[in-house]
Amino acid sequence: MAEFLVVSGGLSVPSSTRLLADRLSDALREVAGADHVIEVHELRDSAHQAVDFVLTGFAHGALEELHARVRTADAIVLVTPIYSQAIAGLMKTFLDTLDPQWLRNKPVLLAATGGTERHQLAIDYSFAPILAYMKARRTVTSVFAASNDWGNPQAVRSLGQRTRDSVGELLNLAGVAPVAATPPPADTPPASVGRQEADSLSSPDFSDLLRAQGIDPGAGNHGG
User: Fold this and answer.
1) Which residues form the NADPH-dependent FMN reductase-like domain (predicted)?
2) Among 113, 123, 171, 187, which one is most buried in terms of CB atoms within 10 A?
């Protein structure tokens, strides 16, 4: 049995960053099977302790517990919003609290959210170098979700495929065999399969929440 840790650096509630973290954890359960431990942690819950650590060098409370999870996890998924072409300060502060030895040779999947597709380069320029310094084993495929990835059916299908592909790479690095995929019924036409997949991955409730806060899900906001 393997232990997977998914760390979400979203700043707001609700947030598209947490939504992406949940999609990735769901993909882990789908691809890896139910025999593994998958834990999702919100960095908001340990934000004050992270600042205390930066100032004092001592971890306590929720941050101390998260550090223990990082050390024992077989693989880690890190999800952050992108602001001004860089990862959010909360995620960077969390990474600053880690001993680089904890991530040495540990499989890591990087994911991010942003207002538009042009922000996805920040994963390679702002996120990946930190993990390279720590000598983590990063998956080749990263996952980026822009605002319009949550409402357009075709974009939703593409995002779903990217999450499964990246999770498959993470399992390979962690030495975890994926479960066999369940084939669709023989009498189900391909177009129907595609629609069912889109329906299962779409999130109208989250879009409604964004609209309630005066945010257009299809607009170029940073996603939080």
Assistant:
1) 4-150
2) 113
